[in-house]
Structures are given as C-alpha cells and as structure tokens.
Amino acid sequence: MYDFDMIVIGSGPSGRRAAVQAAKIGKSVLVVEKGRRVGGVSVHTGTIPSKTLRETVLNLSGWRERGFYGRSYRVKQDIGAADLLARLHKTLDHEVEVLEHQFSRNGVKTARGEARFVDPHTVEITEENGDVDLVTGAHVLIAVGTRPFRPDYVPFNATSVFDSDEIVDLPRLPRSLAVIGAGVIGVEYASIFSALDVSVTLIEPRNSFLDFIDKELIEEFTHELRDRNVGLRFGAAVSKIELGADERPICRLADGRTVHTDMLLFAAGRVGATDRLDLENAGLAVDHRGRIAVEPRTLQTAVPHIYAAGDVIGFPSLASTSMEQGRVAACHAFGLEPPPPPEFFPYGIYSVPEISTVGMTEEEVRRRQIPYECGIARFRETSRGHIMGLNNGMMKMIFSVKSRRLLGVHIVGEGATELIHIGQAVLNLKGTIDYFIENTFNYPTLAEAYKIAGLDAWNRMPRA
C-alpha cells in the first residue's frame, strides 16, 4: 500500500536512530533531510560543533595546564577563528561519513529536500532545484529538531550579532562578547569564550539560572565564572539592542545599565522547526514554541501512526535522550515492546568547567521530606587532581538516611560528563552508600572522588 514502512523527517539523533532501528528489523525506511548533508542540527550547528569548539579552545588555550603554569600560559599564543574552525570541519566531515555509511550498510534510503505533509500518510519532498516528489509511508516520524528563537528586536547580521547556530561560523574572535540567555547553550558559549580570555558578559532577565541543577553546584560554578571576570547581569531584561557606527552591539538593560561589546550572541530559547511541515494536513497542531505533543511512553502524536521525537517534543532536549526516543518510536511502530526507560538519566552541560547531574537535587529531596545526608569531594583532594593541576571541581552525593540508597550525584569540574555514569549505574540499580565504601577505585583517578564523597557522607550518617 505504501512506498515505505517508515518515513523519517530529519536526520538528527532521534531520526537516524529510528531509521537504523527500523531497518535492522527488516523495514523499508526513507530519511528526508533538507540540509545539504545528513546529521541535522546536532551534527552541523548544535551538539557536535559546540563540543568540538570547546575541546579546541581548551587545547589551544592551554586551559588544562594553567594550574601548573599560570593563567598567562597558552599552547598557541595567537588563536584566531581559523584555528577553531579547522578542527571543527574535520570532526563534522567524519561524523557525516560515519552516518552516511551507517545508512548505507543498513539499506536506509535518503532524500534531500524540504518535506511537507499532503495528508497523514503522504509527504511531499521539494528538492533544491525545485523538483517535487510524493512518497507515502505506513508510519512517519517527525524529527525535525529546533532552530534558534530570533525576535524582531535583535539586529542579527552574522558579523557582530549571532544566534546560537551562526556562532560556530564565527568570522573572527572578539575582544568582548555579550551573551543574552543563561540557559544551557548560553552558559556553554559564555564559559567557552571566557576560557579564550575573551571578556564575557552573561545577561539573563531572571534572578537565577540553570534552576534544574543542584543549587550548591550552581554556587560553585558561579564562583568560578566570577573568578574569571565573567560579568553576570541577572534580574534585568534587555530593553533594546542597537548597533553603533562600527557595528558594535549596544545592549540597554531594563535596570538602566548598558553593555558595550564587540559581538553579541542571542541564545534565549529555541523553537520547533515545524512551521513549514503543513502539519494541519496530517491532523496535527503545535504549541506556541512549535513543539509537538506526544504520548511519553510510545512517542505517538495525536495521529497514532505519526510519531515525534527529539528536541521537537521539548524537554529534556538532549542528544542522548533523543537517540533513545527515536529507537523507542521505531520499536513501537512495528510492534516491538522496548524495555521501560530507566528512572534516571544523566544531564551534561559542556561548559568550562563541565557540569553533570543525575537523580534528585538537594532541593528535590527536601521537598519530598526525605531524611538525607550529603557527601562532598573536592577534585583537589584526589591525587589525580594534583597531577592534572586542578584547583577547582567538586562532587556531591546525596543518600537516604533510612534506606542508605543513593538519591543523586552532582558534579562540576573536569570530566564531569564522563564521571557521572558511575553514579547513574548505582542509582538506577538502586545501590546504596555501601557500594562506594566497600569498593576499590583505580588510583590515581578522578573517580576516586566517589570514594571520598561516600566516606564523607558515611561519617555524617547516624549509626544504628
């Protein structure tokens, strides 16, 4: 009846995982991608570019060695935009090659063009040269992701005022940078440019930021930013953005302050890239941010044979969870029952320093009125931390006093996004503090912080 068993619109993390999963169980799959190459926002302007940029900055700036050699130490004295982009392009080329090979060996077909619904089972694909194709699918997965929110009052020009997709193609390094929006993206870029010794001002209308992270970790991270002279302008909205005669942006804040910088990054939110899909033809609607509502367990939309996954459905908007959502959607579409998702998944913020968290924050534990105790480990307390020259970084673990079970792990510092998986495993396996007390960790490693924090909490807990 249909040309394909599944049509996947978008080739980001959720789209590619769904396509490969469906193909591996013998289904015919077509992936439609409007970009010039597969990979979606994650590969070309989002996750991979920003993390590659971060790694390049840390390497060329000598950031990791400054604990030994001082703040003026650099691996390369004069770092330009071309230095950052060289590694970026190599990484992106490799990512695309891997993905294309993955599609090829699994028999996934691809089409380049913009997709729109004609009816619930029919998708029209308009190619760059204007050619139009109609394809039908028994199932459709919408995995188009998001694009930056671009309000009219921001004078975007791609030379001195950028959105979060454009910043990866920076034409030159600024001497100073204003970042509007202290969400995950804004914080990541603010801290990355700060590591390059760019003077950064982070602007956020709310009085706090990253509210889903444990407050003690945010206090530690805020201290780190202030120590690097990052200007924090919280509690004041931007009332106006102007461009001076030299195209330098001028931010006028509602509290009367003015921020003058060489460049400006607007990173205050993203919206679902759904406006050109003609979703009404498929019987679907979106919310005010272009997101599609789904049934959380199956990823089905209001039209049962149409699924949606990834950033287009909203929180948590992580590449890791998007991949799993795509797989779950494909399995459900073809009658396979995937195992239930774990109760807790890790959240990683690739700032400088990294932040990663899994489980409940101390604030959540208090709200639930669970008797608890915390253990803290400072990276400078570990021998590995000494070897690496770390002056900062901490791990916080939260345990139930009654059951002794681990409730949450929160890390800020070098390697946080790697270290968190030990805590994730213990948490989802319902492990207790005894795991950390009784087990031996490689020495010297930063993972030894689990032992230190575990003992710290154990020493504070009441004895039976």
From TrEMBL:
GO CC annotations, alphabetized: cytosol
Cofactor requirements of the protein: FAD
UniProt entry tagged with the keyword Nucleotide-binding: yes
Positions annotated to bind FAD: K51, D311
Record keywords, A-Z: Cytoplasm, FAD, Flavoprotein, NAD, NADP, Nucleotide-binding, Oxidoreductase
Chief localisation class: cytoplasm
Compartments where found: Cytoplasm
Enzyme class: oxidoreductase
Highest taxon of the lineage: Bacteria
Keyword set includes Cell division: no
GO biological process: 2-oxoglutarate metabolic process
Domain Pyridine nucleotide-disulphide oxidoreductase dimerisation: 346-451
NCBIfam families per the UniProt record, alphabetical: PRK05249.1
UniProt family annotation: Belongs to the class-I pyridine nucleotide-disulfide oxidoreductase family.
Name recorded for this polypeptide: Soluble pyridine nucleotide transhydrogenase
The species this protein was found in: Ancylobacter tetraedralis
